[in-house]
Amino acid sequence: MTSETEAKPDSRLKVKIGTVELENPTILASGVLGVAAGGLISASNFGAGAVVTKTVGWKPRSGHPGPRVVGLHGDSMMNAMGIPNPGIRDYIPEIKAVVKQEIPVIGSALGTSPKEFARVATHLAKAGVSAVELNISCPHVGSLYLLGMDPDAVAEVVSEVVEQTEKQVPIWVKLPGSTDYPRLIQVAKAAQTAGAAALVALNTLPALAIDVDARRPLLGAGIGGLSGPAIKPIALRAVWELHNAGMNIPIIGVGGILTGQDAIEYLLAGATAVEIGTGVLTRGRAIFSKVCNEIGVYLTEYNIKHVSELTGQMAKFEVNS
Ligand SMILES: Cc1cc2nc3c(=O)[nH]c(=O)nc-3n(C[C@H](O)[C@H](O)[C@H](O)COP(=O)(O)O)c2cc1C
User: Fold this and answer.
1) Mean pLDDT across the stretch 73-93?
2) Which of 12, 92, 150, 172 could join 198 via S-S bond, C-beta 3.0 to 4.6 A?
3) Half-sphere exposure of 28 (CA within 13 A, CB side)
4) Is there a catalytic annotation at residue 292?
5) How many separate helices (H) and strands (E) can be counted in the chain?
6) 257 lines ligand 1 (CB under 6 A)
């Protein structure tokens, strides 16, 4: 690693998401580095303050047929992975290997029913994760996306998970990629009331890409999820809408972050921390230390003592009706 990519400890960047303490506000987003422990550990070595595991379900899933990922203009991409994963029992050793490194590990959970979500979350909690992130929002697994847009269904899942995990682990809820902000607020409020400890906004957005020569979709599954800079303004607005709606649990912003400035925008909109996904693939793992160093430069430039002072500090403005 060059000095530019080294993670320099900076106590001004330490954040707390409820009870979870992070060295800095950058988190590896779920899925982009696959299931192996090595990928998650390397993200931490490159400066991530925490890592989210690949989403894991109760039973193994082989995922969708290929192609599963297509690059778009700039750093954006679409994927329709279909959440391939080995199932919770076979994934536990990998997760334990990451937990052993004393990195805050967030276990991403999937279920086909509230009870199954709870069973997976309970196994993750026993493996020692610092929090469980519920994936109720994957846009290329139709049932999950529908679940995530339904406040009552989300409340049912979160209540069951909170009850079964006996409050031993904080439950984060990852919201669906959508511009239906009023609905996202309803879902977020339902999750908060049901006991969620944090909100993660957003998952990928439902999208389509076409191969004009073959006249068929580029992705094997047909439809997919859009990520990267193309979704940043949408996810940023979602964070701002949630913050404005008076959520009293932390919000974690995710979507299209490539630079410290991108991360600072999310913090100003109301986020406590950010997750980075596609940027890790297009810019490399050193993106974590780069984003942290750039946030540090901003704090120095504006004489701000601690990164938490940025949360929700965008100037208020009137929305014309
Ligand atoms: C290849 C790929 C795989 C992903 N897998 C998952 C996953 O397993 N679970 C999940 O909750 N999100 C998954 N995501 C979504 C990301 O975690 C993130 O929410 C989204 O990509 C937006 O952030 P970004 O623009 O920084 O990538 C995946 C994204 C990509 C690009």
Assistant:
1) 96
2) 172
3) 35
4) no
5) 10, 16
6) yes
User: 174-184: b or e for each residue (b if 16 or more CB lie within 10 Å)?
Assistant: bbbbbeebebb
Banded pLDDT at 280 (limits 50, 70, 90): very high
Q: Residue 53: which of 3, 2, 26, 92 has the closest Cα? A: 92
Q: Pairing state of beta strands 198-201 and 171-174?
A: parallel
In the chain, DSSP assigns E strands to 15-17, 20-22, 26-28, 50-52, 69-71, 77-79, 105-109, 131-135, 171-174, 198-201, 205-208, 210-211, 216-217, 223-227, 251-254, 273-276
pTM for this prediction: 0.97
Cα–Cα distance for residue pair 31/44, rounded to 1 Å: 15
Q: What is the mean pLDDT of residues 154-171?
A: 96
pLDDT at 198: 98
Is the CATH number 3.20.20.70 carried by domain 3-310?
Answer: yes
**Centroid of chain to Cα 206:** 16
pLDDT of residue 253: 98
Q: Is 159 in the pocket of ligand 1 (CB under 6 A)?
A: no
- The percentage of the chain sitting over the pLDDT mark of 90, rounded to a whole number, equals 92
For residue range 20-66, list pLDDT tens digits in order.
999 999 999 999 999 999 999 999 999 999 999 999 999 999 999 99
Where do we find the tokens 């160093």?
A: 293
* Predicted local confidence at residue 3, as pLDDT: 47
The Cα 75–Cα 148 span in angstroms is: 26
Distance 204 CA to ligand 1 centre (A): 6
| Ligand 1 and 228: CB distance under 6 A | yes
CA–CA separation, 229 and 258 (whole Å): 8
